[in-house]
Write a structure and sequence with these properties.
Layout: E1 2-8, E2 13-19, E3 22-29, H1 42-52, E4 58-65, E5 76-77, H2 80-88, H3 97-110, E6 116-120, H4 130-133, H5 139-144, H6 154-168, E7 176-182, E8 186-192, E9 195-199, H7 221-228, H8 234-243, H9 246-251, H10 256-264, H11 268-292, E10 297-301, H12 302-307, H13 309-316, H14 328-332, E11 346-349, H15 354-365
Parallel strand pairs: 1-4, 4-6, 7-10, 10-11
Antiparallel strand pairs: 1-2, 2-3, 5-6, 7-8, 8-9
The structure holds adenosine-5'-diphosphate (ADP).
């Protein structure tokens, strides 16, 4: 089946056309609405894509949608009610859901006869048990304002955990994996028998691990203190914690490659940022080993996870007493398996492919 995957952001649309699992076309329309951009608006962007790819015989369109709230536990065929629900979830993802909605509306208008499917970043984590979902805050407030853990990067964690089971030659239903998606955004996930049972991001993609420009977990008092004592308006605090924190906040650079370069050149702030980043991932590995009990594999993915041997080493070195026996040479060589043959827990590197997973889930949602 031919499937077009659309990832519609506020100023760009990434697309990939699959013919079964083969990529037939891909591209990016960017700087939407900007001077000299590729398109004046999302409708223009999608028209451009439909003109440039061969949509003849298209079987479906799969849309990436960031936030599915507590409403979607699976990829879902889009109808008016689904659009209305995604719309209702906008307050939970004010930056991400509106462009996805624009993409869905325009695609339905331009190709009304092609089935469309929404694939949510949150859906995979709907299997997390209640004790991993709720924070210990006032229940009435939490319920009224939909405050809970949703988790993100679900498409990536789903894909990578399945690929890991395949790499181990085990059925998914009998495989427990900790997946570490380390890119610009970063999150950890504990997957038991193919289902997410814990993840590090929370109500938004801001929680958990240290990221390029996001703080990850912090004591909530940081926010009160910056407001009450430092006198910062709430918008400025939000901007600082989401766009001026993480590796950037600690070191002045958000790109891991540049950071590693600076660390090698003796930059102390870069060295500290690296240590804080890796320490946090390591803490989550320890936590998720305890959540899973028996763990078969730990898998690194994302730009940093797939490419940075120093990060993988700092995260897993010295954990042989916990069953993870890293092989430094394999790690440096970026082998698929980076632990020793007799390591009880297999450490792996598996490239993620969110677009392929969206296509797979789109097909599955349509019964194919
Ligand atoms: P996104 O989350 O936007 O999809 P990626 O998954 O591509 O981003 O991850 C981007 C990050 O991966 C950047 O911090 C980049 O520096 C890092 N990265 C890419 N290649 C390497 C490398 N060889 N060594 C270390 N970090 C790398």
């Amino acid at each position: 089946m031919k499937i077009l995957v659309l990832n519609t952001g506020s100023s760009s649309v990434k697309y990939r056309l699959f013919d079964d699992d083969v990529v037939a076309a891909k591209g990016l329309v960017e700087k939407i609405g900007e001077d000299g951009g590729d398109a004046p608006d999302h409708e223009g962007a999608l028209r451009r894509i439909m003109d440039s790819v061969d949509v003849d015989g298209l079987g479906a369109i799969g849309h990436r949608v960031v936030h599915g709230g507590a409403d979607f536990a699976d990829a879902t065929v889009i109808d008016d009610a689904v659009v209305a629900t995604i719309e209702r979830l906008v307050p939970l993802a004010p930056l991400h859901n509106p462009p996805a909605l624009a993409g869905i509306r325009v695609a339905r208008k331009l190709l009304p006869d092609v089935p469309q499917v929404a694939v949510f970043d949150t859906a995979f984590h709907q299997s997390i048990p209640a004790e991993g979902v709720h924070w210990a805050i006032d229940t009435e407030l939490a319920e009224r304002w939909q405050i809970r853990r949703y988790g993100f990067h679900g498409t990536s964690h789903a894909y990578v955990s399945r690929q890991t089971a395949a790499l181990l030659g085990r059925p998914v239903e009998q495989t427990n994996v900790i997946t570490l998606h380390l890119g610009n955004g970063a999150s950890a996930c504990a997957v038991r028998a193919g289902r997410s049972v814990a993840t590090s991001m929370g109500m938004s993609p801001q929680g958990g691990l240290v990221m390029g420009t996001r703080s990850g977990d912090i004591d909530p008092t940081v926010v009160f203190h910056l407001h009450r004592v430092a006198g910062m308006p709430i918008e400025d605090i939000e901007r600082s914690l989401t766009r001026g924190a993480g590796l950037l906040g600690l070191s002045g650079v958000n790109d891991m490659r540049t950071l590693l370069q600076r660390r090698d050149d003796g930059d102390e702030r870069a060295a500290l940022a690296f240590d804080v980043y890796c320490r946090r991932v390591r803490e989550y590995v320890g936590a998720y080993l305890a959540v899973l009990g028996r763990t078969d594999a730990i898998t690194f993915t994302g730009g940093v996870g797939e490419n940075s041997a120093p990060v993988r080493e700092a995260v897993l070195a010295g954990l042989a007493p916990l069953g993870i026996d890293l092989d430094e040479q394999r790690n440096a060589d970026r082998a698929k398996v980076i632990s020793r043959d007799d390591s009880p827990i297999t450490a792996c590197v598996v490239p993620t492919d969110e677009e392929l997973e969206i296509a797979t889930q789109t097909r599955a949602a349509l019964g194919g």
